Automatic annotation (TrEMBL), chains A, B:
It holds the Pfam family AIRS_C. This is Hydrogenase expression/formation protein HypE. It comes from the Bacteria. Residues 165-313 form the PurM-like C-terminal domain. Residues 42-153 form the PurM-like N-terminal domain. Belongs to the HypE family.
Length: 341, 341
């Protein structure tokens, strides 16, 4: 696809010059974003916010491949930031969008990324308020990297890690491992990508439904399970609470094909990155209520309790096996799995 | 320099895994940023803002080389976003920081970048509220790219492009072309980099001094002169105002060595990127007051009037030569000068 604005089929160095072609590239992006873009073409966007506390976050996105079966880096770039705002209890409002483009990137792919950003922003109810495009020479970046930063407002008390306590139930909103398996399957040519899709989704609607329905103080803290996987999240909570967090191996929601693929890849789903899975710490008395609300939402249909915060005052992550025995889950140094988000 | 936290001399792939080494990389960055980092290690920062309008902006930074004579990409990343907030009349408050790091980047260079970010943020009076680090494989990015997004508050009326009007004086706060010459001189080995330094500077203090001193409504609109140079800024204002903007060639503030270097490089200083130069459109009655205030500040010592918005209802940029004749300055398609910021 040639840009209707520039007449060019691919990104060229002069698209990043700050001169006429830069303006045309920006027009191409802005037109594709459509109604979700509300910038004014000043050096900064001017926005209204209510007084009080806001949430602010940022993420850069370097997914490889940038285009995959049921999404692309554009979708991830909106979901990642929307989810980081949603899990602290904020309502996401505004996103910024930074793009670093490799010379030679087909305009058709840029169009696809911007279309995904548009559709995901529409679903999440957020607006893109300003952007920036940089073009680098061939080989100075791998196709396209994005950055989004976002702000949200607190309409209720913020959720913090420090508010987890012994007895809290640990709930996952959906299966783990699928995003990683989907991307690695494409990268390595394993053939699982048709049956295992990325879970990439904006979860602010799910969070809002949950927090609106259950009583204030019921949900103590939430994280989205991204890089580092469930294990990394649980280690953070163990450290933050000073208590051991235990989960039951048999209760982990993992799709059958994902088990096969992770076995083949030699990775463990508890270390796999996801893009649409929440890990919630909730009042045990409200466990069933929370599960019911989550399961009523399309992004929480497979929500399940996997464990609890124990009374042991040691910041460990424990896995209870089928035999009823606990083993310590060590924190990985790393996993040599770059660019999953 | 090996990281005191990780014991590693350079960035490795596992620094981006989300597991233990990621935590250590983040600790290294956070410790180096010191008191300017106020994040809470939740998924989003939680901030207080007064009710009303805020400004929000973002920029990605891909400067080549990332380390130069009197600065580095870290300094640029703070100045770029601070300046974009300042020129619309906002007081910059909070920045986010996204880093994309190439495997093998020496920790010493990452330390240098973070130190620059720290020092520049301290000078500008802004705080880093959250960050993100991604690590990509060797060759998937050129050393280090940064993104900052920022928000600021309006304590006075926003300044907008549409408020320029015929008769406005066009003032530059300092010389043009130096940042481009400095970086290109290092890149091409021209030997000018000792005598021509980058102008990279946070200009929110200069803007605040100016707007506090001169009466409300005196300064109509301001842009910082970055990619695309003065010519791009003047073209934007010509389009926004619907009037021709004219400058006098002889009044352009260009350092002698910069003239030599741009001649050698075959570029024109009016198209060169800067990182610490404002282009101001001001009420003609207040021209001298504005110049006096700008010149009283270290970043405006060489402020000078270069032209005016004419009464001609044509969106042109005109250059008046030494002979008193006007010529039309065409907008460049591009300049094939990548990665100056």
């Amino acid at each position: 696809m040639a840009s209707s604005v520039t007449g060019l089929d691919e990104v060229v160095l002069d698209h990043g010059s700050g001169a006429k072609l830069s303006g045309e590239l920006i027009s191409f992006v802005v037109e594709t974003l459509g109604e979700v873009y509300i910038g004014e073409m000043e050096d900064s966007a001017m926005l209204s916010v209510p007084a009080g506390r806001i949430a602010m976050t940022t993420d850069s996105f370097v997914a490889d491949p940038p285009f995959f079966g049921n999404g692309d880096i554009g979708k991830i770039s909106v979901c990642g930031t929307v989810n980081d705002l949603a899990v602290v209890g904020a309502r996401p409002l505004y996103l910024t969008l930074g793009m670093i483009l490799e010379t030679g990137l087909p305009m058709a792919l840029l169009h696809q990324v911007c279309t995904s950003i548009r559709e995901t922003a529409l679903e999440a109810g957020v607006q893109i308020v300003c952007g920036d495009t940089k073009v680098v020479r061939k080989g100075e970046v791998d196709q396209i990297y994005l950055n989004t930063a976002g702000i949200g407002v607190f309409e209720r008390a913020p959720l913090r890690m420090r508010d987890v306590r012994p007895g809290d139930r640990v709930i996952l909103s959906g299966p783990i491992g699928n995003h990683t398996v989907h991307l690695l399957s494409i990268r390595e040519g394993l053939g699982f990508e048709q049956r295992v899709l990325s879970d990439c989704a904006p979860l602010n609607g799910l969070m809002d439904t949950l927090l609106t329905t259950v009583g204030e103080g019921t949900v103590h803290s939430v994280r989205d399970v991204t890089r580092g996987g469930l294990a990394a999240v649980l280690h953070e909570y163990a450290r933050a609470s000073g208590h051991a967090v235990r989960f039951e191996q048999e209760r982990l929601p993992i799709q059958f094909e994902t088990v096969m693929a992770t076995d083949m890849l030699g990775i463990n789903a508890i270390h796999a990155a996801n893009e649409g899975c929440l890990c919630l710490f909730v009042d045990p008395a409200a466990e069933q209520d929370v599960l019911n609300v989550l399961r009523s939402h399309k992004y929480g249909a497979e929500a399940t309790t996997i464990g609890e915060v124990t009374g042991d005052a040691e910041p460990l992550v424990l896995m209870r096996g089928a035999d009823g025995r606990d083993s310590v889950v060590e924190e990985l140094q790393g996993a040599e799995l770059p660019r999953l988000c």
